[in-house]
């Protein structure tokens, strides 16, 4: 999928029971409708097709206060990266433990070992580790699946993506959301298959889904998991991003 030209505006805030929630409007010419998302930190994010829709976007947020409140109530609380916390990493629950002699974080059997001074926030270094691990796994699986369907892939990158699990550029470069580190391995496998299939079909036609089915026969289950449970992946570690959506045709 090609990169979109977007423009983001800090459009003000709305009041929700005495709590001020900032509103960010993202102008994306490829958007077909107004789309509102809420992140667990309380930021309202709205995507609209044109600058002239910004006023309608703000009205949307004002008119949907009850929905915004219910979304925030449904979201799981953040789970910080700190010793004693257990988090899923690449299909295995890992207990975060602190070892003063450890220079950089590392994964062991059922643990994630961090070092440095006690009390220092390890979030940034853990995210760097998870990005490296996810990149290695995604590259290995992408190469295998590309061979399966007879296509070539370019670079494989991992980023903090705000609203997608993965993408495929017209040049064949694949990008994946680092938060897939916390997803079930079968779900990560599906996302890889999805993006590799775009090397043959840059759309979501029946031919595209037939390729996905060839590489990942249970893809429908994993797609449903991402839709219904994906927001839990944003509770771990870093500042959460938008994880719930509301669309108006």
Explain the layout of strands and helices:
Layout lengths: L5 E11 L2 E10 L5 E5 L5 E5 L5 H10 L1 H10 L11 E4 L2 E7 L7 E2 L3 E4 L8 H27 L6 E4 L6 E3 L5 E4 L7 H13 L8 H10 L3 H11 L14 E5 L1
Parallel strand pairs: 2-4, 6-8, 9-11
Antiparallel strand pairs: 1-2, 3-4, 3-12, 5-6, 7-8, 10-11
What do you see in this structure?
This protein is of the alpha/beta class and 249 residues long. It has three domains: 6-75, no CATH class; 86-126, no CATH class; 130-234, Zincin-like (2-Layer Sandwich). It contains six helices and twelve strands. It has helices spanning 54-63, 65-74, 123-149, 185-197, 206-215, 219-229; strands spanning 6-16, 19-28, 34-38, 44-48, 86-89, 92-98, 106-107, 111-114, 156-159, 166-168, 174-177, 244-248. The strands form three sheets. Strands 1-2-4-3-12 form a five-stranded mixed sheet, with helices on one face. The chain has a four-stranded mixed sheet with strand order 5-6-8-7, with helices on one face. The longest helix is centred in the middle third of the chain and has 27 residues, at 123-149. The two termini are 23 Å apart.
Give the uncertain stretches in residue-range form.
Answer: 239-249
Main β-sheet description = 5 strands, mixed
Strand content: 25-35%
- CATH arch. level architecture of the largest domain: 2-Layer Sandwich
* Largest beta sheet: strand ordering: 1-2-4-3-12
Q: What is the CATH topology classification name of the largest domain? A: Zincin-like
Give the terminus-to-terminus CA distance: 23 Å
How many domains make up the coordinates? Answer: 3
Q: Would you identify the CATH H-level superfamily of the largest domain?
A: Metalloproteases ("zincins"), catalytic domain
Gyration radius from CA atoms, angstroms = 20 Å
Tally of helical segments: 6
Q: Looking at the structure, what is the overall shape?
A: globular
- Please write the CATH class name of the largest domain: Alpha Beta
Portion of residues in helices? 25-40%
Task: Give the topology string: H per helix, E per strand.
Answer: EEEEHHEEEEHEEEHHHE
Extended strand count: 12
Structural class computed from helices and strand pairing:
alpha/beta
What number is the mean pLDDT? Answer: 88
Protein name: M48 family peptidase
